[in-house]
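Please produce the structure of this protein holding flavin mononucleotide.
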Amino acid sequence: MKPIPLLDVAKVTSPNPVTLICSRNAEGVTNLAAVSWWTYLSIEPAVIGFAMMKPSYTGETVRANKNVVLTIPGEALAKQVMQCGCSTGRTKSKARDFGIELKSLPDCDIQIPVHSAAAIQCRLREFVDVGDHYFYICNVENVYADDQERPLFAWNGYSKIAPLQK
Ligand SMILES: Cc1cc2nc3c(=O)[nH]c(=O)nc-3n(C[C@H](O)[C@H](O)[C@H](O)COP(=O)(O)O)c2cc1C
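Below is the modeled complex.
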């Protein structure tokens, strides 16, 4: 074995998970950010966590209104996942600009992409300063799935978005 930078090991662990994290800003606009660094933390109570760069708009809005929905994007969104990961909701409306059709969930003021294989509706419990990222620890309120949607993953580290091979 040889020493490598931490981020390079993401190529070894590929395919990596990828989510579109949906949050709502003060104007009521749903923002979408590509996030691979999420994990299950507890089943009872149901808790998940995700890490986001400190300046991210998603982090700012989740810290402000506490509600957030993690979605697993379906195959139709491969191009848009990369677009949502290379732009910020601080300066654009990603769903509108990237042609992502949204739908509502029951008892949830944040919309999600129509083509979602799963949605985990959460409420922020706390966030922890872990370095260049904050780690957001969230109570899970509701979970939904659509088995007609083929889930996407991040390949070759985070450079390609595609489903698993059949
Ligand atoms: C495949 C992929 C995975 C990503 N995973 C993360 C992640 O886990 N954490 C993070 O902070 N940013 C991640 N990003 C980058 C964010 O999506 C990017 O910083 C985005 O501009 C944040 O949007 P926002 O400012 O609207 O929140 C990822 C990008 C891509 C393309």
